[in-house]
Specification:
2 strands, single chain, mainly alpha, 12 helices, flat, MetI-like fold, two-stranded antiparallel sheet, 2 domains
């Protein structure tokens, strides 16, 4: 009990000069009750039950057992959707990353003088970034119909907003000395930006593209659940039909693909930075 009391209200400390100092009360005094109330409310709201977890949790291992061994004969049906997933990620990442360059320029504190333009662009991207990629995919599926195009658009917009934020923050940390020197020679701000700022940031820019590509491969794999193309369509289909050996092969192919892309991306990014 004394240890608990000391955790919330530390004992006074006597300094070498005889002065007694009372440490501040631990933030746990406020944090623990608040977290307790939030946790209890969340349990009640979500109807979370520990007994259900223990009673039904074993089903995960039943499904996992059904996936082993994977049905390798199904691979010829997986190849096409897998390629579509990769292509969705490639196109969406490239388009979003290219559009992020001018958008980052307009959002940068160092580049854009107009406070109104900076406010509008940052506010716009902040709002769009609040939409999860699955919500974007649903919206584009309604607009463009079921298929990979909706998924590619969702990945492109998602990448565009993320890359814009990441890159304008990089621009704001760049060395402005060369920029100001080129500006003093009579060049425009855009010319000085391309000649003085971008050479400092190309490596980091391409590194960010690869990082986003890694994320988008994972994102694209689940967009099929909302009809936005890719390998997620057949994954959802096979799960619905409880064809677990086929599901096992799909997951295995996805894991190998993501691992290979991440390994290649990590190697390239190390050389860029």
């Amino acid at each position: 009990m004394d240890k608990i009391k000391q955790f919330f209200l530390p004992k006074p400390i006597t300094l070498g000069n005889g002065k007694v100092v009372q440490p501040k009360m631990s933030p746990a005094v406020y944090v623990v009750p608040i977290l307790t109330v939030i946790t209890l409310y969340s349990i009640n709201l979500t109807k979370f039950k520990i007994d259900t977890l223990f009673r039904r949790g074993y089903q995960f291992f039943v499904i996992l057992d059904g996936m082993i061994p994977p049905n390798f004969a199904y691979f010829d049906k997986v190849w096409g959707p897998l390629l579509a997933t990769i292509m969705m990620s490639v196109i969406g990442t490239l388009v979003g990353s290219l559009l992020a360059l001018p958008a980052a320029y307009l959002s940068s504190e160092n580049m854009m003088k107009s406070k109104l333009v900076k406010f509008i662009t940052k506010a716009f991207f902040s709002v769009v970034r609040t939409f999860p990629i699955l919500v974007l995919a649903l919206l584009f599926r309604i607009i463009f119909g079921i298929g990979a195009f909706a998924g590619t658009m969702a990945i492109g917009v998602f990448t565009f907003t993320i890359m814009t934020k990441m890159f304008y923050e990089l621009i704001d940390t760049a060395d402005m000395g060369p920029f100001e020197a080129i500006m003093s020679s009579g060049a425009s701000r855009i010319q000085a930006f391309w000649s003085a700022i971008m050479p400092q940031l190309w490596g980091q820019y391409f590194s960010l593209i690869l990082y986003n590509f890694e994320m988008n491969i994972r994102n694209a794999a689940v967009l099929g659940y909302v009809g936005a193309g890719g390998i997620g369509i057949i994954l959802n289909e096979r799960l619905g039909w409880r064809l677990y050996p086929d599901v096992g092969l799909i997951l295995l192919v996805m894991m190998v693909t993501v691992y290979l892309i991440e390994t290649l991306s990590r190697t390239v990014r190390k050389n860029l930075l």
